[in-house]
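Incident log, structure service

09:12 report received: a user says their structure output differs between two submissions of the same chain.
09:20 pulled the input from the user's history:
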Amino acid sequence: MKVNGTPTRTIWLAEDGRTVEIIDQTRLPHRYETTRLASLDDACRAIKDMLVRGAPLIGATAAHGLALAMREDASDAGLATAYERLFATRPTAINLRWALDDLRTRLAPLPADQRAAAALARAEAICDEDVALNAAIGEHGLAVFRALWEHKGTPDRFNVLTHCNAGWLATVDWGTALAPIYKAHDAGIPVHVWVDETRPRNQGASLTAWELNQHGVPHTVIVDNAGGHFMQHGMVDVCIVGTDRTTATGDVCNKIGTYLKALAAKDNGVPFYVALPSPTIDWTVRDGVAEIPIEDRGPGEVQRLWGRLDSGETAWITVTPEGSPAANPAFDVTPARLVTGLVTERGVCDASAAGLAGLFPEHAAAAE
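09:34 re-ran on a clean worker, output below:
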């Protein structure tokens, strides 16, 4: 995608050919800043502190983190330590484990002096593959949007509701749920996006809105609790979200509040789609509510907000009374029964074991 007209990815190899650079997403939308990751410590901090976020980008950053670690210590012990430290950064997004398992499997048989180069090459390949996967998701999602738009008689505004950020900032490029939006906009479909603010970190208001602005897509930021109201009044044509982990049976784990949007969509007959690349599918899990670990983040994210003051300065402000505790589960699980369809790089399927097996028979067979 583009930042101020310049094609940009969320993570890229620095000019030295050894370190990587990322967009510091904690500074958006008021500041566009990049930072360099030069060590395993840097990569772990970037993931844990959410300088990078979104399941696919977390996986790509973990892959580069392991490559950086191999420059520091490419021994078997160094590989094991790097794997465990990166794995512990965030528990919910399955792409993290997928990328780390992929690299460990490839590196373990190699002599230590070959591991750093092999790890870097594979990390770069994972980034390129992510871009291709998400571009394909965009094409399949575009077909869904076009069919819905034409079924409604090609109105002059096609309203899409999103939750959290599943755009190119959550991936290496294109995004998952936002890829069809970009493709539809570019194809001339008059798409307009209702952007959920997505408390407590406001990824919708801060990141999705920033992305859409950069691409010129019409949108309106709304509070999280307004989605059901707009659905009741016929002002939402389709909902589409991303996911940090999808079970083999079609349950989807996404940013907290997604479940409530799916319930409202079901009650109002609004199609509810989930966009995901195949590395986000956890073929070892069948019951999302019972089996997916939900990350609990610190209460400060609920109690405080970061933003720009009227003076132009950026600052943290406190919004809760002193002494009031806060709970902060980062994700919830939407059962497959509430999902209209899953949009993947191989096409669209029902949110079910049979639906996923039809698109990914090689994985489904192994999961049984």
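09:41 both user submissions now match this output. Likely a transient worker issue. Closing.
09:42 reviewer note: The mean pLDDT is 96. Residues 112-151 form the longest helix (40 residues).
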